[in-house]
Amino acid sequence: MGDQTLRPIPDATVARLAVYLRALRTVAEGPDDATGTATISSERLAELSGVNAAMVRKDLSHLGSHGKKGVGYPVDALAATMARALGITDHRDVVIVGAGHLGRALAGYGGFLARGFTLVAVLDDDPAKVGTAIGDGDRRLVVSHVDDLPDLVVDPGRTIGVVAVPARPAQLVADRLIGAGVRALLNFAPVSLAVPANVTVREVDLAVELQVLAFHQDAHGVGDLMSEDDSPSALGTAEDARERMAST
Amino acid sequence: MGDQTLRPIPDATVARLAVYLRALRTVAEGPDDATGTATISSERLAELSGVNAAMVRKDLSHLGSHGKKGVGYPVDALAATMARALGITDHRDVVIVGAGHLGRALAGYGGFLARGFTLVAVLDDDPAKVGTAIGDGDRRLVVSHVDDLPDLVVDPGRTIGVVAVPARPAQLVADRLIGAGVRALLNFAPVSLAVPANVTVREVDLAVELQVLAFHQDAHGVGDLMSEDDSPSALGTAEDARERMAST
DNA sequence: TAGATTGTTAATCGATTAACAATC
DNA sequence: TAGATTGTTAATCGATTAACAATC
Q1: Strand D, CB < 7 A, residues 137-166 of A
Q2: Which of A101, A102, A233, B183 falls between 20 and 30 A from B162, CA-CA?
Q3: How many angstroms separate the CA atoms of A193 and A201, rounded?
Q4: What is the pLDDT, as a whole number, of residue A25?
Q5: A106 with A162: CB under 8 angstroms?
Q6: Which of residues 186-225 of B touch A (CB under 8 A)?
C-alpha cells in the first residue's frame, strides 16, 4: 500500500536533487580533499549546479535539511540524505536489451551499485553476440538471448528495462520487456515508444539533446559573434556558473 | 548582430518541439503510411508525446502555425517547420572525444545529417584507438588524436563538443575543447564540468536518468502493488499516453 | 449544414526568486 | 560579539490548462 503519501517533493526538485548529488560527489573527491570540503554552502552548491542559491535551499528543505546556519551543509551527510530521498535505499534491477556499442557502454558504466542499481543482464538476439562476455573480473557478465528475458527478470516491479537497440526493433523490444512485467523503461532508441498507461518511460535521444543544446546556445549564449573578445578572463577561471536547462 | 531578437519561444516549448518532431517522424513512417497520416490533430500528437492537447496547440502557435481548423496539421509540413524552428537550417559540426564504446555508439547514430549535424571527427588519446576506423562505406571515419583537436575544429562557434570519456579525464577534455574555441558541450561523463560562463553545457548522466525514472515510477506509476491486475486491457492497447517528465 | 479542430484568451497552478528574521 | 548562512515567507514570474469563438 502507498506509503508514498508522505512525499510532497515536486518533480522539478527531484530532477535537481540528482544534479546536486553529482556535484557533491565531485566536491567530495575534489583535488582539495584534505581542505574544507567537509561543509558546503548553498551558494557554492548553486554555483556548481548552475542554479540559484535560494532554490538550492528550498530544494534541500524538502529533505528536512540538516544545514547549520552560518556554516553550511555537511557534504557527506547531505549526499547520503539525498541518495536516500532519491530512493537509492530501494534497490532496482536493471536489464539492458541490446549488446551493441551503446549497450556495452551502458553496461560498463561503473556507478551502478553505488547508485542503488544492480545490472542483472544484457541481452541481444544476435547469435554472434549471445554468449559474449562484457566487462571483466568482478563485473564480468555474459550476454543472454532475449528469449530468456522472462527468466532473467525476477522482480519485474523493481526492474528497469533499458532499450539500447536501433529504431526499428525498439518497439518490439519494449513490448517484450513489458510482457515480462517490466514497468519502467529507459529508451535510447530514436523513436517514441507506445506503452500502456501503467508503464513509465524516459526517453534519451542524442538528436534531441544536440538540438536543445544548439538552440540554447543561440538563445542565451552567443549573442554577437565578437564576444570571443570578452572571454579571456572567463576562460582563465573556468569555474563559473554553467548554463542550465529549463529543468530535469 | 543579434537577429535572435525575434525568438520569443520559451525554453520549455523548445524542449517539447524536439519531442513532437520525433513523434511526427514516427507517425510519418508508421505501419499505416498509406492511410490518413497526411494530417494529425493536436489531440493525437499530444497523446503520442505525453502532454496536454492545449499545450501542443500553444506550442505550435509559436511556429506561426499552419494547421487547418476542423482538420489538423499537415504532418510533413509541420515536421519541416519544426525542424527549421529548432535551428536545423543552421548546421552544426559535432566532434566526439572518446572512441570507446560510448563514443562509437554516438558516432554510429544515423540521424546526424538529417537532423542538421555533421560529425566531423572522433578523437582519442589511446594510440591503440587512433587510426582505427568507425562505421563503414559512406560514413567511414578514422579516429584522430586529441592533440589534433585545434586543427579539426574549423568553425568553433558552430561546433558542439561531445565528451564521451570516463569521469577522470572529463574535465581535461572539456578544457581542451574550450581551448579550441568550442562553446557548446554535451557531457556524458558522470561528473559536473566546470566551464566559463560563455560556454553552454548539457549533461546526460545514466545514473541521473535511472534515478529520476525510478522516482517517478514510485511517485506516480505504481501506487499499490496489486495493480498488476488492472493492466490486461491496458497491455492490449499499448498505445496510451505516456509518463512525461517535468520538462526537457 | 453539422462536426471537428484550431488558435487564443483568461484563469489556474506551480515554480522561482528576493528578502529577511533566526541562529550558528 | 560580528559575520555568515540557513530556513522560510511573501512576491513574482512563467508555464499549464480549460474553455470557447472562429472557421475549415
Answers
A1: none
A2: A233
A3: 8
A4: 86
A5: yes
A6: 186, 190-225
Over residues B113-137, mean pLDDT: 90
pLDDT for A122-140, tens place per residue?
999 999 999 999 988 778 8
Asked whether the beta carbons of B151 and B126 are under 8 A apart, the reply is no
pLDDT at position A226 is 33
- Judge residue A65's burial from the number of C-beta atoms within 10 Å of its C-beta, 0-12 exposed, 13-18 middle, 19 or more buried: middle
By C-alpha distance, which of B56, B42, B220, B73 is closest to A199?
A: B220
Question: Which bases of chain D are under 7 A from a protein CB atom?
Answer: 3-9, 14-19, 22-24
Q: For B52, left (φ over 0), alpha (ψ -120 to 50), or beta?
A: beta
Distances (CA, A) of B189 to A218, B98, B167, B212: 24, 10, 5, 17
Amino acid, res. B165 = V
Interface of B with A in 154-183 (CB under 8 A): 157, 160, 166, 175, 178-179, 181, 183
User: Who has greater pLDDT, A9 or B129?
Assistant: B129
Within the 112-141 window of chain B, which residues sit less than 8 Å (CB to CB) from chain A?
Answer: 112, 115-117
Q: Which of B14, B15, B7, B44 is nearest to B27 (CA)?
A: B44
Segment A159-194, tens digit of pLDDT: 999 999 999 999 999 999 999 999 999 999 988 888
3-state SS class at B131: coil
Residue carrying C-alpha cell 524542449:
B15
- For A118-122, A230-234, B38-42, which range has the lowest pLDDT when averaged over its residues? A230-234
Q: CB-CB: which of B195, B212, B227 is closest to A18?
A: B212
* A212-226, A228-242, B83-97, B143-157, range with greatest mean pLDDT: B143-157
d(CA A94, CA B209): 12
Single-letter amino acid, residue B197: A
C-alpha A15 chain-centroid distance: 9
Q: What is the 3-class SS of B44-108, one letter each residue? A: HHHHHHCCCHHHHHHHHHCCCCCCECCCEEEHHHHHHHHHHHCCCCCCEEEEEECCCHHHHHHHC
- What span, in angstroms and rounded, lies between the C-alpha atoms of B108 and B102? 10
Using CA atoms, how far apart are residues A75 and A68, in angstroms rounded to an integer? 12
Tell which residue, A129, A200, A207, has the closest CA to residue A167.
A207
d(CA A37, CA A27): 7
